[in-house]
Amino acid sequence: MADHPAVEVSDLNVSYGSTPVLVDVGLTVPAGAGVCVTGENGIGKSTLLRCVSSLQRPDSGVIRVFGGEPGDRPDFWRAVATTVEPPTWYPGLTAHEHAELVCRAHGQDPGEAGIDEALERFGLAGHADAIPPSLSSGQKQRLTLALVLLRPSALLILDEPEQRLDPEGRAMVAGMLADYLAGGGSLLLASHDDKFAVAAGAEIVSMDML
Amino acid sequence: MTVVELRPVRRWIRRTQSAHRDRGETATTAYVVVFSILVLAAMAQETLAAVFRPLVPDLTGSGALAWAAVCAGLLFATLRRLGPVTVSRPAAYFLLTAPVSRRRLLSPTLTVATFGAALAGAAAALGILGHAASTGSIVLVATGAVVGVLLAVAAATAQARPRASRIADAVGRVAIAAGLAVLVAEEAGWTPPTPGGWPPAVVVVPLTGLLALVAAAGFLLAVRDLARTPNDEILDSAKTAGTLADSVYGVEPSFLADMLERRYWAHRRLRSTRLSRRLPPLTAQDLLLARRRVPRLLWAAAATTLPLLLSGAPPWLLAGTLLIGTMLVARTTTAAVKTDATNPVLLRLLGLTSRRALWQRLWVPAALGTIWATVALGLLQVTGALPPGPWWPLGLALGPIGAVAGLRAARAGLVRNDLLPVETPMGSVPTGPVLHAFAGLDLLLLALPTVVALATAAPATVSLLILQLGLGYLGVHAYLTFTTSPDRVELAAR
């Protein structure tokens, strides 16, 4: 896995109808490094992330994640964790139980995975017994981030993770992403907040330059 | 504060809406609806006759009273589920917040609900009278209609007083449970006390008149108190009515089912608990969900006696009820499969293969289905409603079959309305809703040996048991193997 870059994109083309969104886009995220793509709304950041996550098929181009083609395979989704998609929630399960289920599915001991600490750090300790649909949009965003960061992964793909977070929350999430990179993980994110990206330890790349 | 007159506003809305319709469209719609009802009634003439006027009346006095309690409980529960005081979703947005008379705004739906409840009450009374062995006064049909009005008034009162509504709902549930208990006990051989025959007309007529006066007064009081109905109750019922309309118009039952599921959990206060470590994670999750649905499990336990009510019915009906009952009980915990099949985002987060996920999701539904089918068959066997032989072990096969049928139905997702309709001599039949309706039910064909044995009144033999167990387990294994993959996460139906 470490022999290959985390993400390699070349000659990527995507259009919606007759409107081209991505034209001959190329991007490399080295293994163990972080890259933050920036750019104005509608420039194609989310589309790029969706293509890398295998959630959208490009018109043409080559995408490799750790040397392999991204797809709906279990090994891909055990290596890649993403918040590109809007989350759904299991009925009748609390926020804490969602976190425990994610840990158990990845073979982690829920007691040692630090679920309580993660919920505390994301300001969700008081909502551990709530069912996620009853949370506010910001709290849901934080819970999604907590789940993604709790489970083991080799690559995080995050779409504007700073959205709906207050300044303290942004600083905390940026710190956690920096820790993730320091632990050997790779990071691809889209953001409007350069300060956040820098604090997360990600190299900023403008979509115009891709 | 100035109160705006509602009538001109409604008139303007109606005029503006009708300006966007084609000329005569309303008349055409009314014609199609009335014509369809008449055609369906003519087609289902024999079934309707069997429901309302069977050739051989089969109800004792206690049975008739029990059916009356069940029908009243069900009618009250339906009225409470729908409101009964409600408004359309646009009216909830634009008019509920406007300075108009709330009584005038809300009274039309209460009137419609009361009229509908009166019709339903009269139909229930007519059906019960038709089934009763001794002849009762036809005036009791009017009594049924008046009771329907009283139930509508009670439901509207409960809606305006959420605290009292819990007691009213509990009374409704007790009426259903007690009525069914009497019916089941009668089928099991219990001889009920004789109520002393139908009351004579000289009692029924004044009593119905008195009840009608009470109902009329209650209705007027309910209309007077309409303004006290809390906004959240009206908004809830507006959403229910709107979603029901969406489900019917879009032929998409999942809209309503999803809303009811969301609403159920939104009203629950949960405490986080540890998932069982001895079970695979998704099985542990399903077990936790089952533990949180105790009322539903209690109803399911009580429902094991319902097939007894069909011991005199055609055997195919008994077999169908057993299979569909097993499937419905198995579906107690399949909501998570539905979530994953509709949107696999959580499965991707869990990183499990579709095969592993579905195997883990099978165990709790299979256990619930097996227990239910085994107990239901055991009760039928003990009461002598089935031919000789050990029937209850067949529950070991029917449970897993009901479970995979439930899983398949949960994986079906939304109705596909993009499929080509099939042209028949009766008109065109939309393919998507039909396929969706049969998703899951088709797998119940795996229980064919049991169905044939029940339909032909054949005794249960060891060879039948071995054949059914073998076919059931092979079918379950084949379904889980061929519709999942160790290389794929997505769980949507294949």
From TrEMBL, chain A:
<feature type="domain" description="ABC transporter">
    <location>
        <begin position="7"/>
        <end position="210"/>
    </location>
</feature>
<dbReference type="InterPro" id="IPR027417">
    <property type="entry name" value="P-loop_NTPase"/>
</dbReference>
<keyword id="KW-0813">Transport</keyword>
<dbReference type="GO" id="GO:0005524">
    <property type="term" value="F:ATP binding"/>
</dbReference>
<dbReference type="InterPro" id="IPR003593">
    <property type="entry name" value="AAA+_ATPase"/>
</dbReference>
<protein>
    <submittedName>
        <fullName>ATP-binding cassette domain-containing protein</fullName>
    </submittedName>
</protein>
<dbReference type="InterPro" id="IPR017871">
    <property type="entry name" value="ABC_transporter-like_CS"/>
</dbReference>
<keyword id="KW-0547">Nucleotide-binding</keyword>
<dbReference type="Pfam" id="PF00005">
    <property type="entry name" value="ABC_tran"/>
</dbReference>
<dbReference type="InterPro" id="IPR003439">
    <property type="entry name" value="ABC_transporter-like_ATP-bd"/>
</dbReference>
<keyword id="KW-0067">ATP-binding</keyword>
<dbReference type="InterPro" id="IPR051782">
    <property type="entry name" value="ABC_Transporter_VariousFunc"/>
</dbReference>
UniProtKB/TrEMBL annotation, chain B:
<keyword id="KW-0472">Membrane</keyword>
<feature type="transmembrane region" description="Helical">
    <location>
        <begin position="64"/>
        <end position="82"/>
    </location>
</feature>
<feature type="transmembrane region" description="Helical">
    <location>
        <begin position="110"/>
        <end position="132"/>
    </location>
</feature>
<feature type="transmembrane region" description="Helical">
    <location>
        <begin position="297"/>
        <end position="318"/>
    </location>
</feature>
<feature type="transmembrane region" description="Helical">
    <location>
        <begin position="434"/>
        <end position="455"/>
    </location>
</feature>
<feature type="transmembrane region" description="Helical">
    <location>
        <begin position="462"/>
        <end position="482"/>
    </location>
</feature>
<dbReference type="InterPro" id="IPR046264">
    <property type="entry name" value="DUF6297"/>
</dbReference>
<feature type="transmembrane region" description="Helical">
    <location>
        <begin position="170"/>
        <end position="190"/>
    </location>
</feature>
<dbReference type="Pfam" id="PF19814">
    <property type="entry name" value="DUF6297"/>
</dbReference>
<feature type="transmembrane region" description="Helical">
    <location>
        <begin position="30"/>
        <end position="52"/>
    </location>
</feature>
<keyword id="KW-0812">Transmembrane</keyword>
<feature type="transmembrane region" description="Helical">
    <location>
        <begin position="392"/>
        <end position="414"/>
    </location>
</feature>
<keyword id="KW-1133">Transmembrane helix</keyword>
<feature type="transmembrane region" description="Helical">
    <location>
        <begin position="138"/>
        <end position="158"/>
    </location>
</feature>
<feature type="transmembrane region" description="Helical">
    <location>
        <begin position="362"/>
        <end position="380"/>
    </location>
</feature>
<protein>
    <recommendedName>
        <fullName>ABC-2 type transport system permease protein</fullName>
    </recommendedName>
</protein>
<feature type="transmembrane region" description="Helical">
    <location>
        <begin position="202"/>
        <end position="223"/>
    </location>
</feature>
